[in-house]
Design goal:
Blueprint (H helix, E strand, L loop, with lengths): L1 E4 L5 H9 L4 E5 L10 H11 L4 E6 L4 H12 L2 E4 L5 H11 L2 E7 L3 H5 L8 E5 L20 E3 L8 H8 L3 E4 L4 E3 L2 E2 L1 H15 L27
Parallel strand pairs: 1-2, 1-8, 2-3, 3-4, 4-5, 5-6, 6-7, 7-8
Antiparallel strand pairs: 9-10
């Protein structure tokens, strides 16, 4: 099970997450976000972890030119589209940048799941509303083989249940491992990573019971022959 640690704003937090098995580091390039990453710090993170993990830039309804410049300036390997971008726009992002594309959607109903089918991106990401979980059983309505990433209100306490319910390609966490927006909590990062490992570990089989002893059957007595 892969983990994308998102909302990274500092090199030291990136190092912490990589130490705990990050597959991808997400940096948010949305002006209104409390987790907005500065391009200079994002470039430091990319320079440190290039070819070690995936380096994701998160955008919401950003112009194509802005996305392409950011990918080039920072050195991102993935682009996450988390707004109202359509399938054609997502395809053009892939063509212009050469980066892999994650299309994200906030899932409330079955219709939100079905609406993702026209997006032929590298990954789909299902998120909740405002940092909350969504109804995980809605993922059963997927009719595409695009690898699925799951986010939305995940913490060390519920990520195991999410993994068992959905069996996603990866889980995505931001606020669930923070001490404050954009600042990661080492204890929460460690607990989250451990919960993911525990959820994907095979169940420990119960110890075999010793065989029950065979029931005692007395031997028939031989009649004595009188002398």
């Amino acid at each position: 099970m892969k983990i994308k640690f998102c909302g990274i704003t500092r090199l030291e937090d990136a190092e912490l997450c990589v130490e705990h098995g990050a597959w991808a580091l997400g940096m948010i390039f949305v002006p209104s976000s409390p987790r907005k990453a500065k391009q200079t710090e994002a470039a430091r993170i990319v320079a440190t972890f290039r070819r070690k993990v995936e380096l994701v830039g998160v955008f919401v309804n950003a112009p194509l030119d802005h996305i392409a410049r950011t990918v080039d300036n920072v050195g991102l390997t993935m682009v996450q589209l988390h707004g109202d971008e359509g399938p054609s726009f997502a395809s053009e992002v892939a063509r212009r940048t050469g980066a892999k594309v994650i299309k994200a959607a906030r899932v409330k109903t079955r219709a939100d799941v079905v609406a993702m089918e026209p997006f032929h991106t590298d990954f789909h990401l299902f998120d909740g509303q405002g940092g909350t979980t969504f109804e995980w059983e809605l993922t059963r309505h997927r009719r595409t083989q695009t690898p699925l990433m799951v986010a939305g209100g995940l913490t060390h306490e519920n990520v195991g249940a999410a993994i068992r319910a959905i069996e996603p390609f990866a889980v995505d966490v931001a606020s669930g491992i923070e001490s404050s927006p954009g600042i990661k909590d080492p204890a929460k990062v460690a607990a989250f990573a451990e919960a993911v490992r525990a959820a994907e570990a095979p169940p420990v089989p119960a110890p075999a019971l010793p065989p029950e002893p065979a029931p005692f059957v007395p031997k028939p007595r031989t009649a004595e022959v009188p002398q």
